[in-house]
Amino acid sequence: MTANNPTLTVYYDGACPLCRSEMGLLMRHNTAGRLRFVDIAQPGFDAAALGVTQAALMARLHVQQPDGSWLVGVPAVQAAYAATGHHRISRLLAHPTVARLARPAYDWLADHRYRLPRWLLKAAHLHTGSCAPDGACRSR
After folding, report:
1. Do the Cβ atoms of 58 and 13 come closer than 8 Å?
2. What is the per-residue burial (b if ≥16 Cβ within 10 Å, else e) of 76-89?
3. CA-to-CA dists, residue 46 to 2, 38, 39, 111, angstroms
4. Nearest Cα to 83, choosing from 135, 119, 47?
5. Within the chain, which residues score under 70 in pLDDT?
6. Category of 120 on φ-ψ map: left (φ > 0), alpha (ψ -120 to 50) or beta
7. Domain map of the chain by residue range?
8. CB within 8 A of 139, min separation 6: which ones?
9. Per residue in 15-36, pLDDT tens?
């Protein structure tokens, strides 16, 4: 990666169907390789090595920037979408009015993600297949 195109590391809950689906979308659009994906639900994952708790990582999406700083929640989503070329979504999430709504909506969704019915995920087109952290994807 060049200095103009840094790699961001996305830490996501691979045990969560909604999270897997969203990461699958990002993996498929990660053609420039600007994102590296780490499934924090995998056995042997060590959050303490990153200086954060597993509980914090499980509570909200985390993106680590090349300088080691963290983006959490909506800012993490914004960065991941921008890195995969979804600049409209990223800019929309940064708009003050949308941001005021997006943050509590994201928090509610993150807190209730395991209770969302599968039919809702399919209806929202979020059930998009399965992708490995290396970006290899397959349909279900």
Report:
1. yes
2. bbbbbbbbbebeee
3. 28, 11, 11, 22
4. 135
5. 1-5, 121-140
6. alpha
7. 8-130
8. 129, 130
9. 998 888 889 999 999 999 999 9
